[in-house]
Structures are given as C-alpha cells and as structure tokens.
C-alpha cells in the first residue's frame, strides 16, 4: 500500500467499524491490531452482547443505537444473522430507582427514554413477569420493563463482518502487530510498531482498554476494570430458551455493583449453558497487560450469593466456563470522541463503559465522519477528551 491517509490502531468493536466506515468513503486506511480480532484479550468477546433501544444510561444514546441497528441490518444482508431479537427485561428494585452504569434511576430512565422516542415497551407487574418469564422472580415492589424489540448481538461475528467489509473496500489490515508509540510529524503522524514504521496524515486510537495508557491525560476520566463472565447450566433448560427467556439486566441495590445481567441459551450453542455476569467497578487496574485472567469457583459462589439466589430459578452452582473481559468506563457512562489535545492528527475514541457494543457500529461511523470531514469537535452526544 502506498502511504495510508489514516491509520486505525485497534481493530476491535470500534476500530473495525471505523476502518470499514473510512474505507467505504474512499479513504486509504491502514488498520493495525496487536492480536488477531476477534480475540479474547480485550472487551469484545464472550459470544453475546445485549442490545436495547431505550437507553437508561442517557437519551442521547438512542439515535446512536438506532443507527447501529441500521448498520447491523446492512451487514446481515451479506453475512447472515449477527444477533437475535429475543426481547429484554430490565428490572429495578425500589420502583426502578436503583443504579446501573453509574446512572441512578436506570430503569425509570429506560421507561422515560422509551416514551420519549416511541420505543415499543411494556411495564409488567412482578406477577405478570413471573408468569410470562418463569425463570425470573422479581419482588412485587420491583419495576419491570420489557422491550420486545431488544435482544442480543454476536460481537465476534460483528467484528469479522466489519473487518471483511473493510478489506473489500480497500483497507489494509495488519494483525499480530503492536503499536509501540506515536509521534506528531510535520503534516501528520508517525506510528512505530514492533514490525515497522508508518506515516499518515491522521491516526485513530481505538485501542480499547489500552488507549488510556497511550493518552493518560486525555483519557484521565476513564478507568479500566476486570469483569468476569460465568456460563451456568440451567436445571430446566426450557425456562432459558430464547423466546421464553429474554436478555435481562437486574439492578437490585443502591450501587452500580448491585446489578447483574444475562442471556438466554444461544440457539445452536445450548450446551454452553447460559451466560451471566455482574459488574465490578472497584479496584481499577493500571495495566491491562497484567490483569488477572484466572478465576475461581469462589467468584461463581459470590455471583450466586450476591445476585442470583432468590431471583433466578435453578442455575447450576458450578460454572461450565468463565472468561475475563475488560471495561473501560467513564463515571457518567459516556463515550469520549475527540481530537487528542495538542494535535489535530490523532483522534481518540473510547467507547465502552460497559454498554458500548450495541453502539459501536454507529460510533465507528461518527469517527469516520469526524476524520473524513475534518471536524475538530466531538459530535453531539459524545464527551470531549480532558485537556
Ligand atoms: C464483560 C463485558 C460485557 C459487556 N456487555 C455489553 C453489553 O451487553 N452490551 C453492550 O452494548 N456493550 C457491552 N459491553 C461493552 C462493549 O463490549 C465494549 O464497549 C466494546 O466491545 C469495546 O470495544 P473497543 O473497540 O473499544 O475495544 P476492543 O474490542 O477491546 O478493541 C481494542 C483493540 O485494540 C487492540 N490494541 C490494544 N493495544 C494495541 C496496540 N498497542 N497496538 C495495536 N492494537 C492494540 C486490541 O488488541 C483490541 O483488539 C461489555 C463489555 C464487557 C467487557
């Protein structure tokens, strides 16, 4: 490839979307990733991600997820299903006032977003929820929101689809190659990797949990935390089949750590069990290369004791499998998209905060538009980097 116009660092959820969206606009793109996406080292693995339209983290995210849905649908025409619309239950204790992703009143906020944007939804009584979805045992005082058009995305398939589309549109993708540093040079940026040196007019830093290490001041508001996914065997699999069991988020206490979420059995992969996780925001990690990727039965015991017992029916006490994953979060669950302060040649994007996947296709498009059109300020709904 002759000199690229834009180098995208990181080809996970956001970077794969960015590389494709730039390449389809005729931009000469070089994409670089230190591993071979999709892989299990970052934030985009584990087979499933929840997608929903009424976004309790903030109504500004609703247009973003709607645009992502259009992009997923476009990709599905060529790639087959990238997800499954099996509905979503969002349950909140104390009338929905409980916290999720740092948002107090998350469930009540979800209802408000659905009303504001005309998203089809139902508010169920706890008894109605127990009858329609018998795996779930909400308390009578819980607020139960049901969104029939929500469901799950298959993140690894989404990444592959976007990387394939990027290649077809002319992008050069180099995987198994690690960026070591970037420098501003006259008229652009120089990227040094463990395999070579590249120059371009611009670069996009989409390195997920590794981005704060490359831009510590600009991303000072982010923190990286270890998350653990558990796959459990249901005693009565029929209760957890997609159709009888939606995806779900359950916020049952006063802090962000008092919540869990999960998925039905994935059709065709029933033997894997059901995936369930809580969220950990304490103990941020300094270096994602040194996160503890081991896990123990004691952590699955704690998931049962802290979250599942009394709320979900008949799940095996022992995990069939566990996986660690990384959140890169801002306190307000917002997404940072901005030029790196001090240089126009590098654009930073940090889309995670535990709810970024469903938005990532549209986030990549916004990054591409910002770079392609030479915009200097974050698009509406995104947060600036710290100066
Ligand atoms: C456990 C878990 C559950 C989640 N659940 C949901 C959910 O249900 N719904 C939802 O919408 N969102 C969810 N999210 C959030 C969502 O998955 C993330 O926001 C999204 O996947 C982040 O994508 P990313 O591109 O920023 O990071 P990644 O996909 O991790 O990509 C970063 C890439 O950068 C590469 N890289 C890093 N350093 C370098 C370097 N020096 N040189 C070259 N390449 C480099 C990495 O190899 C990696 O491929 C969840 C996240 C986690 C961890």
Automatic annotation (TrEMBL):
Q: Which UniProt keywords apply?
A: FAD, Flavoprotein, Oxidoreductase
Q: Which cofactor does it need?
A: FAD
Give the GO molecular function terms.
Answer: flavin adenine dinucleotide binding; N-methyl-L-amino-acid oxidase activity; sarcosine oxidase activity
Q: Which residues does the UniProt record annotate as the domain FAD dependent oxidoreductase? A: 6-368
What Gene3D superfamilies is this protein classified in?
D-Amino Acid Oxidase, subunit A, domain 2, FAD/NAD(P)-binding domain
Top class in the EC scheme: oxidoreductase
Question: Could you say which EC number(s) this protein's record lists?
Answer: 1.5.3.2
| InterPro entries membership | FAD-dep_OxRdtase (IPR006076), FAD/NAD-bd_sf (IPR036188), MTOX (IPR045170)
NCBIfam families, sorted: PRK11259.1 (NF008425)
Specify the protein name: N-methyl-L-tryptophan oxidase
Naturally occurring in which organism (per UniProt): Sandaracinobacter neustonicus
**What lineage does the source organism belong to?**
Bacteria, Pseudomonadati, Pseudomonadota, Alphaproteobacteria, Sphingomonadales
**Gene encoding this chain?**
solA
């Amino acid at each position: 490839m002759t000199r690229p116009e834009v180098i995208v660092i990181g080809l996970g959820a956001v970077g794969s979307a960015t590389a494709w969206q730039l390449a389809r606009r005729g931009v000469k793109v070089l994409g670089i990733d230190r591993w071979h996406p999709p892989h299990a080292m970052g934030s985009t693995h584990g087979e499933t991600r929840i997608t929903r339209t009424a976004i309790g983290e903030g109504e500004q995210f609703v247009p973003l997820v709607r645009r992502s849905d259009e992009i997923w649908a476009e990709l599905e025409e060529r790639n087959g299903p990238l997800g499954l619309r099996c509905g979503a239950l969002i349950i909140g204790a104390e009338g929905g006032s409980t916290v999720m992703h740092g948002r107090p009143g998350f469930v009540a906020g979800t209802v408000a977003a659905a009303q504001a944007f005309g998203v089809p939804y139902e508010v169920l009584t706890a008894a109605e929820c127990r009858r329609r979805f018998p795996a779930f045992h909400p308390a009578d005082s819980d607020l139960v929101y049901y969104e029939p058009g929500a469901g799950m995305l298959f993140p690894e398939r989404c990444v592959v689809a976007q990387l394939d589309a990027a290649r077809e549109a002319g992008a050069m993708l180099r995987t198994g190659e690690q960026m070591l540093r970037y420098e501003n040079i006259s008229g652009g940026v120089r990227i040094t990797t463990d395999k070579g040196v590249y120059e371009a007019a611009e670069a996009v830093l989409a390195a997920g949990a590794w981005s704060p290490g490359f831009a510590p001041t600009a991303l000072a508001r982010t923190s990286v935390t270890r998350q653990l996914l558990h796959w459990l065997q249901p005693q009565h699999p029929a209760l957890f089949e997609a159709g009888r069991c939606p995806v779900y988020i359950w916020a049952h206490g006063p802090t962000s750590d008092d919540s869990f979420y999960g998925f039905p059995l994935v059709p065709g992969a029933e033997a894997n069990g059901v995936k369930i996780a809580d969220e950990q925001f304490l103990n941020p990690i300094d270096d994602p290369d040194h996160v503890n990727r081991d896990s123990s039965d004691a952590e699955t015991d704690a998931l049962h004791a802290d979250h599942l017992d009394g709320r979900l029916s008949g799940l095996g006490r022992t995990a069939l499998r566990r996986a660690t994953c990384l959140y890169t979060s801002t306190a307000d669950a917002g997404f940072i998209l901005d030029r790196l302060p001090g240089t126009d040649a590098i654009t930073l994007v940090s889309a995670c905060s535990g709810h970024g996947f469903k938005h990532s296709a549209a986030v990549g498009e916004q990054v591409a538009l910002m770079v392609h059109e030479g915009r200097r300020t974050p698009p509406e709904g995104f947060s600036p980097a710290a100066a």
